Amino acid sequence: MRKPFICGNWKMNKNVDEAEKMINNLKAKVKDVDNVEMGICSTALCLTTVKEAAQGSELVTGAENIYWKDSGAYTGEISAKMLAASDIEYTIVGHSERREIFGESDYEVNKKVLSALAHGVKPIICVGETLEERKAEQIEAKVNFQVDSALAGLTEAEVADLVIAYEPIWAIGTGETASAEEANRVIGIIRENIRKEYPEAADKVRIQYGGSVKPHNVEEIMAQPEIDGALVGGASLEAESFSEIILKTAKIYK
Ligand SMILES: O=C(CO)COP(=O)(O)O
Questions:
Q1: Model ipTM?
Q2: Top-level EC class, please (predicted)?
Q3: Most Cβ neighbours (<10 Å): which of 27, 64, 135, 230?
Q4: How many domains does the chain have?
């Protein structure tokens, strides 16, 4: 069985003090959880604070973005090589906010995925459709194209170990969620598409749902067979709500 992965994405929130306090609070609340992988992705500024505060717990740490070069004259960027040197386990790649606000392309997402893997950092690859694409019945074409592009050049073993986050763009930060069944359906489509090229990896790759996951809706989302966890924005900012999401998931998987 795939181990569910509940991961917070703090986005551009929290200073160093706030990050440390939150992790200390969260640690205590989830200390008995052993059947759910738990993580926080923070800004580059807070990464080492989160990592240090998480010591002695099962919490893993991730960045929200990387550049694909190892080092050099790329003002403002951080690399997978730097993350690896600080034992940061994950990085989000291709979040829709990066794609939409910062113009990140599928080509760049693939370069970032390859760079992360080259340094032993696990990518969490985000895909998802806009409302217009959903209305035009282009969900399948959009997400499969994004996944195929992101996975270009990967080995079967690398795909098996990946995390993909299906985040319909219209559900992010809006309070709207895809129904649990609909999220399950699209995630199933993504998995079957992966199976065409990676038959062994398809049942191993973890595919999360993201978009307004909250304590009140996490149970029905996590009860779906294809959904292997959640990438949580707003509700990951407070230890209370994020731990509730983790604890409810842990109960379902018991
Ligand atoms: O974008 C998201 C996680 O990456 C989802 O954000 P919200 O949970 O705030 O909708």
A1: 0.99
A2: isomerase
A3: 230
A4: 1
Q: Is-contact 95 65, C-beta < 8 A? A: yes
User: Which residue is catalytic, options 95, 108, 158, 244?
Assistant: 95
Q: Is 11 annotated as a binding residue?
A: yes
**Cα 143 to the center of its chain, rounded Å:** 15
Q: Which phi and psi angles does 124 have, rounded to 5°?
A: -110, 105
Spatial CB neighbours of 241, under 8 Å, sequence gap ≥ 6: 214, 215, 235
Distances (CA, A) of 171 to 109, 157, 194, 223: 21, 31, 24, 19
11-30 residue pLDDT tens:
999 999 999 999 999 999 99
Domain of residue 26 covers 5-252
State the Cα–Cα distance between residues 193 and 188, nearest whole angstrom.
9
CATH code assigned at 186: 3.20.20.70
